[in-house]
Amino acid sequence: MSFTVVLVGRPNVGKSTLFNRLAGKKLALVDDTPGVTRDWRSAPGHVGGLSFTVVDTAGLEDVTDDSLEARMRRQTEQALQRADVALFLIDARAGVTPLDRHFAAILRKMKTPVLLVANKTEGKASKSGLYESFELGLGEPIPLSAEHGEGMADLVQALMPFAKEDTAAPTDEPVEEATGDRPIAIGDQPEPAEDLSKPIQIAIVGRPNVGKSTLLNSLLGEERVLTGPEAGMTRDAISVDWQWRDRRFKLVDTAGMRRRARVDEKVEKLAVADTLRVIRMANVVVLVVDAEAILDKQDLTIARMVIEEGRSLVIAINKWDIVDDRAMALRQVEDKLEAGLGYIKGVKVVTISALKGQKLDTLLDGILATYAVWNRRITTAQLNRWIGGVLDHHPPPLIEGRRVKIRYVTQVKTRPPTFALFVNKPLDLPESYQRYLIADMRNTFDLPGVPLRLLLRKGKNPYADE
């Protein structure tokens, strides 16, 4: 059974709390501040044997101009048009407000069926609001406490008529952990064929107002998320399934990340924490930077964070269409990458204009190329021929008159490529020599732009006696 349920109502009535309850995970940001949710987001919902897609929306405001609130309302109306049923939430403790009455009148005229939900009905203070809600003309209200999980059985009963038998399961799933890390025994293992049915998870990150949401909209070809001149517009991480050239992607737009010292609002702290979660779950992270302030200190901090998490990185320089001296700008990019990310050679850099849709195919080609490197496996025979040549030309330095013996190397996992180096004294191998080995391996096996990890192990070559 699968159908789409959209949650609507004025700000701060508990829509995101109910969304998290139905999704079974804390996916949406929740705070007492009105207007935390700005874009609609969806996830699989499961309750009482029903499976459906649940959609959280921004709070409805009575505005129709070009303000942020009006654009949020249009996003909500777009989600309503795609839904099978809408849950119109009111705050039973606050009672029915004029704004509730206004939007109830609008919802009654829409084709989408509407169920009235009186939220926050725990305690006696909600009784009067529950009775008042009958006047909205949307039928008998469903008393509910999204925060405490009370009244869910009544909600299931109300949703039952909308369940569709034998339909496909919802595909707009929340971001799943996608590290792909799997232990591999020493020696070569057959590389499993890539499952092309699984989407490549792409996180779009960067400072506020660099064009992350505009990039997502341009890729999708629709106004899926809010954009505008206001900085910090995106708060929740918005996940969207998408397909390009027979490859499936899960695109995740994230909140802008400012320097920690400048983040003082609680909601922004929650949004940044959500962005960090998305980075840890991504396959490829696209760092969007502003062509007018290319790779400033915060950009490089985000890039290093991505590398430390073991994710593959692609840098998209946005607003390239307004750059006058492009040659100078590219030299500036090279210099800053060398100074700030010199240990990760070959990071893919693509110049784009998200607003005009320029070079988006080039960006996607770069993403696929980087993803392929991040998944690459090198045979043990190749690695040990390589380490033999390295030791002939540049052996480890002497430690107290004795040389550390490197006996064997093998790849233990991918995503990112990780290698075990067997030496007689792991603690004595200098870090500078380890960095040299990683740099030489990157050049020899063509592994640009992804983190490489080298694990030192003590032990003899397990194949020495064969």
TrEMBL record:
Q: Tell me where in this chain the EngA-type G domain is found.
A: 3-167, 200-375
Region annotation Disordered: where it falls in the sequence: 167-192
Q: Where is the signal peptide?
A: none
Kindly give the InterPro entries that the UniProt entry links to this protein.
AAA+_ATPase, G_ENGA, GTP-bd, GTPase_Der, KH_dom-like, KH_dom-like_a/b, P-loop_NTPase, Small_GTP-bd
Per the UniProt entry, what are the Gene Ontology biological process annotations, in alphabetical order? ribosome biogenesis
Q: Indicate which residues the UniProt annotation says bind GTP 2.
A: 206-213, 253-257, 318-321
Chain positions recorded as GTP 1 binding sites: 9-16, 56-60, 119-122
Looking up SUPFAM superfamilies in the UniProt record yields:
P-loop containing nucleoside triphosphate hydrolases
Q: Cite a single GO MF annotation.
A: GTP binding
Per UniProt, which keywords does this protein have?
Answer: GTP-binding, Nucleotide-binding, Repeat, Ribosome biogenesis
Sum up the protein's function in the record's words.
Answer: GTPase that plays an essential role in the late steps of ribosome biogenesis.
Q: Describe the protein's quaternary organization and the partners it interacts with.
A: Associates with the 50S ribosomal subunit.
- HAMAP family attached here? GTPase_Der
Q: Into which family does the record put it?
A: Belongs to the TRAFAC class TrmE-Era-EngA-EngB-Septin-like GTPase superfamily. EngA (Der) GTPase family.
Known NCBIfam families for this protein? GTPase_EngA, small_GTP
Q: Could you tell me what this protein is called?
A: GTPase Der
Q: What is the lineage of its organism?
A: Bacteria, Pseudomonadati, Pseudomonadota, Alphaproteobacteria, Rhodospirillales
- Chain's gene name: der
